[in-house]
Amino acid sequence: MTISANDPSRKSWVTVPENSDFPIQNLPFGIFSKEAISPRAGVALGDQVIDLSILHEKGFFNDLPFGKEEFTEKVLNGMMKHGKKAFCDLRNKIAEIFDANGNHTERKTEIEESLNSQDSVTMHIPVHVGDYTDFYSSIEHATNVGTMFRDPNNALLPNWKHIPVAYHGRSSSIILSGEEIHR
User: Fold this and answer.
1) How many CB atoms lie within 10 A of CB 71?
2) Which contacts of 156-164 are long-range, i.e. CB under 8 A and separated by 24 or more positions?
3) pLDDT below 70 — which residues of the chain?
4) Which terminus has fewer CB within 10 Å in the chain: N or C?
């Protein structure tokens, strides 16, 4: 499975500020809304959010397995059911559409209709999370947690360096950054 979207030489015709978290090589999916636009699938590119439903309406994703309703749902779960390959193909297609050397420049005006300033949108939790398992993936994380449950001298269990150690998480604790949390 090739992810051509990650090609480090690729440049976008959309202006992307230097040191942006969202260059064309990093196209994160999310759910956004704005005044008069209900929550829907989008992708960040520089300071913009791409409205994927508009690109779908204009036929840019006809060769992909996604339906119109999946781009206008309030979560990405329906799209995720198509699997990793479909998502990689979608990401590659988006990168192709916004590539400065791409073959979609004659449709640039149509494509620009899909762009929304990040300042003008509201972001939403992108998926329904039913459950999850997390891993103690760093020695610092495992030591901090171990210190809370045991004394600092016995923070790491003997098996930590030999097998993955996981714990069950609560999906009710997943919220958007900056929101109040009730414990």
Assistant:
1) 21
2) 160/136, 164/135
3) 1-2, 169-173, 182-183
4) C
